[in-house]
């Protein structure tokens, strides 16, 4: 009797664990049915074949567990291209002709927006084209159907269960389902772009070209938060695209520089972005867009990329305005997304050694699936003398940057997600700040006294500490908002219009952590509607209007909107949160310390 009770308890616990793993692993219904069959089969075998004896029963459990594990592996979500729009059998658009050939897209369900996905803007950077400047896209015969996103660029793919836990525990967007689960394809062949436009015949519409973030190592243009449908309904054409990442996009070696007619190395992802802009300039009129009214936009590493495009001599004439969310590289010594050529080349030599390569031919022969798992993280651009010719701030001081106007800003809790596993106490607080401020760390610690993390931003895996909240505030300033303070001052000194915001809105998802503003600016709150309320939707409508107005006119202001005054010295920002109103940036005294530290390291 006790054996039967114990068996039932173990079986129930096994079923619960199996169900949890299958939900997190996004196993489709067929896998669940196979697991159910295994449970039924195990119960039958246990009752009729393994009814006595410890070793036979133990062997039965081992075989049963192995069968479930095999089912989990075999019935995992399949690789499947992501459709351009939600819904079955969307209506195709008419034929659009671009330089490479004819293509069609699809309409959204209500017919209000046309969507074209997976349009090649450059040749696949594979084989001999790996680590070379992007080449022109090849032409095609017939009509190309552009109704699915192209594969995302090569990157380390997290386990599905890990992504599910992240969506559940941090983003709060995870919703389990038993059908339709899939994984996005991934490939080196990823230089494709996507277009959202208002339906029907259009001419001379302003264009927003968006560059996705992800530390230059991850990310994909198909992500739901980047969907351009809502902004397209505001009367603009929205474009985004994939570009080479990590070792494929930012590897630098002396051999590659020698191979290049332009002497470039280390900025292949940035060169992809410039190629995408050139394609837009040459072809966007076919979608009703105006090539002379292009605004580039990006968030996180995408905003750093926007900053780089503003100083690159190769992008002159390809855009007029810029929107940058939560990053930039105009500090004298940028804290991230930028490195010296010396450091880039040193890492390149280490990667050659890692793969036992004596030449670039050897490294090009390494399969992408192996190369992507390099232990060295290529997450920064560099001064290569071609795409970027000098430290970006110097280009601004000379007035040789390209943007005519800038909308930029940051979120309050930018750094919180990046420091989750670091404990900061009163005892180690100053030491934690030294990498940011050097000998000014003590001053910063006095300016921002030790305090714990805000409970609203205390995720389950937060390491905590009685000074962690203060440390996060200083890191948020140094890593993120300081770059916008510098950028705003540089533009204001040129008498160019610049608007800066500070996003403070709490909500059921990321709140004002890094990336939290994206669904508001793009109008995608309802894709995770349970995380937001009507106040959030009202804020989103205002932000979309600001962004769209800026793309249209170079000024975010418009009828019915709270007035957003241009920033004159980087000190005044527009709060986007519970209220929409101008405010003094509360980190100004901290920025002064960062200025002092930056001046000292730049002098070195």
Secondary structure: elements and pairs:
Elements: H1 2-24, H2 29-48, H3 54-74, E1 96-98, E2 101-104, E3 106-107, E4 113-120, E5 143-145, E6 152-153, H4 160-171, E7 186-187, E8 192-198, E9 205-211, H5 229-232, E10 237-241, H6 246-250, H7 254-259, H8 268-283, E11 289-299, H9 301-311, E12 321-325, E13 338-339, H10 341-354, H11 360-364, H12 368-371, E14 381-382, H13 392-398, E15 405-411, H14 429-437, H15 441-447, H16 468-493, E16 498-503, H17 518-522, H18 534-553, E17 572-576, E18 580-584, H19 588-603
Parallel strand pairs: 2-5, 6-7, 9-10, 9-11, 11-12, 12-15, 13-14, 15-16, 16-17
Antiparallel strand pairs: 1-2, 3-4, 4-8, 8-10, 17-18
Helix pairs in contact: 1-2, 2-3, 14-15, 14-16
Write structural notes for this entry.
This protein is an alpha/beta fold and 604 residues long. The chain folds into 3 domains: 2-74; 96-174 and 183-403, Rossmann fold; 409-603, Alpha/Beta hydrolase fold, catalytic domain (Rossmann fold, 3-Layer(aba) Sandwich), CATH 3.40.50. It is built from 19 helices and 18 strands. It has helices at 2-24, 29-48, 54-74, 160-171, 229-232, 246-250, 254-259, 268-283, 301-311, 341-354, 360-364, 368-371, 392-398, 429-437, 441-447, 468-493, 518-522, 534-553, 588-603, and strands spanning 96-98, 101-104, 106-107, 113-120, 143-145, 152-153, 186-187, 192-198, 205-211, 237-241, 289-299, 321-325, 338-339, 381-382, 405-411, 498-503, 572-576, 580-584. Strands 3-4-8-10-9-11-12-15-16-17-18 form an 11-stranded mixed β-sheet, with helices on both faces. The protein has a 3-stranded mixed β-sheet with strand order 1-2-5, with no helix packed on it. Strands 6-7 form a two-stranded parallel ribbon. β1 (96-98) and β2 (101-104) form a beta hairpin. The protein is globular, with a radius of gyration of 26 Å. The mean pLDDT is 95.
